[in-house]
Amino acid sequence: MTPDRPIRGSRRWSHYGGGVDSAGLLIEAFGRIRGLVPEVVDGLSSAELAWRPQDQGNSIGWLVWHQSRVHDDHVADVAGLEQVWLRDGWYERFGLDLPPRDIGYGHRPASVVKVRVTAERLVGYDAAVAAQTERYVAQLEPGDLDRVVDERWTPAVTLGVRLVSVISDCLQHLGQAAYLRGLL
Q1: Neighbours of 82 (CB within 10 A)
Q2: pLDDT value at position 21?
Q3: Are 66 and 74 in contact (CB under 8 A)?
Q4: Which fold has domain 7-183?
Q5: For the whole model, what pTM was predicted?
Q6: I need a labelling partner for 29 at 20 to 30 A (CA). Which of 49, 132, 169, 174 fits?
Q7: For the residues of 23-90, what is the DSSP string, one character each?
Q8: Pairing of β 148-150 and β 19-20
Q9: What is the pLDDT of residues 73-123, one digit of tens each?
């Protein structure tokens, strides 16, 4: 870190004429995800993490696992990195009866119930994903955010838009998980 980028807690801030640099802002936003995961799962048993209202919909465990998988998959893709899930052995540690690159997109109830997890593993995996993301985002320059990363859409998706999309998706799923926790 340079002197004009002091660290407050685990988040990097940089003030230029009263503003925050784009990398610092993204690190702050991704840090919100990292901070919510332990809050949502703290003290919950595997059975509570697997609970689904009226045996329908997604469980807390599935929602937290899914948002971490999307985060890992999408950021690794745009950064040109290997997914933490595969590289660091989280796929094996979780031991789920799902394909290694599965991120949960399009899961039906039969797949959702396969995601039986522990709070400790969810927090550990998410922290590892967050660390990789922070290292990647910290080195970005503002112009990098304009790089096109997906031409399948009109308009084409830039790196900045993809990162904001990941943040939005993760926060929505964590909000859903927090709501379910309130129903326990």
Answers
A1: 12
A2: 84
A3: no
A4: Four Helix Bundle (Hemerythrin (Met), subunit A) (1.20.120)
A5: 0.88
A6: 49
A7: HHHHHHHHHHHHHHHHHHHTT--HHHHH--GGG-S--HHHHHHHHHHHHHHHHHHHHT---HHHHTSH
A8: unpaired
A9: 999 999 999 999 999 999 999 999 999 999 999 999 999 999 999 999 999
